[in-house]
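User: Predict the structure for this protein chain, please.
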Amino acid sequence: MSLDSGERFDLAVIGGGVAGLCLAYEAARAGRRVVLLEREATLAARTSANWFRILHGGLRYLQTLDLVRHRESVLARREWLRDFPDLIEPLPCLMPLAGRGLKRPWAFRAALALDAALARGRNRGLRPDRHLAAGRVLTAADVRRLLPPLGDLPGLEGAALWQDAVARDAPALAAALARRAETAGAVLRTGAAVAEILVERGRAVGVRTEDGARVTAAAVVNATGPWSDLTLGHLPSIRRRDLFRPSLAFNLVLDRPAPFDGALAVQASRPNAPILFVYPLNGRIFAGTWHAPWQDGPDQVTPPAAAISAFLADLADAMPWLDLREDAIHAVHAGLLPVNHPGSTDLTGRPLIVDHGREGGPAGLHSIAAIKFTTAPMLARKILARMR
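Assistant: Here is the predicted structure, written as structure tokens:
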């Protein structure tokens, strides 16, 4: 079916990243006629192609007692494991505990016990080989046997060991998301750049693509992430609000053998160094995630050399036995994530959901942006619930 066939849709989704794909699927599954328009030649081509591929269950949110985000993450991780068991698998995560901040055995025993209690249903409905074990704390002797190089870590008291999930083949998962949406009835179009959101009598009524095709829809959702403000720039009634304030997030693929079969949490010795994760990917190390301020546009996202060097320096300090140098870098995976303040790395705590009709803009026009790949399906269901 061509875009100018004259068919009227219930929903037009602009943007084919994970948020757009999940929304297209959920809308089609709910019986809505939905079309998704992606300007790139492939779906999930930008930030959604460069994520770290770990689907976290929200253990980190217990540090601030953010029980809402913890529960959402647990439910979302289970949903991914249930729906894509051939593409997503359990991932052991090991964090050495050496008496820095809350990185102590007693603190993690409490956190893992709370996690186990709050995530009792984490394996409900999952294939047995996709079940996640409860976390536990290892002794320092256990750690030295499991990973001898960590025995030289000053003040080693033990390690926390838990399980999350990982999607090692990101393109395959994106393709599976697209197939699922199309099977549900969604129309997906790549190479379809949107030039204009059409508005009549104060209401969004569809879009016009750059090749002149008119797509009529009862509602429009802007799911273009870092391009959100550019997508809306031609609409004078949209309040200028910097919908998506970008920051840089990037990961490194390193030509070194992975130190652990699962994910290893590492931290450089300098004060306030971030906790980074490394895990094996196709015979190499996948390391992430480094955050840096971003002032440029969304089209060319290339991390500055200084940021890459700083990232590598922290990894080398945390894992000196790997002899990490610049020649170890095989690839860089970069994207943009939303922050609270321009020029910062303070990521927003909640996904973006804006009803522009409530802010003086066209009725029937919404914008969304995910902050975590893990909870993108929940974001899709939330925006659909608001559009009823």
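The chain has two domains: 8-48+171-244+348-386, 91-167+245-338.
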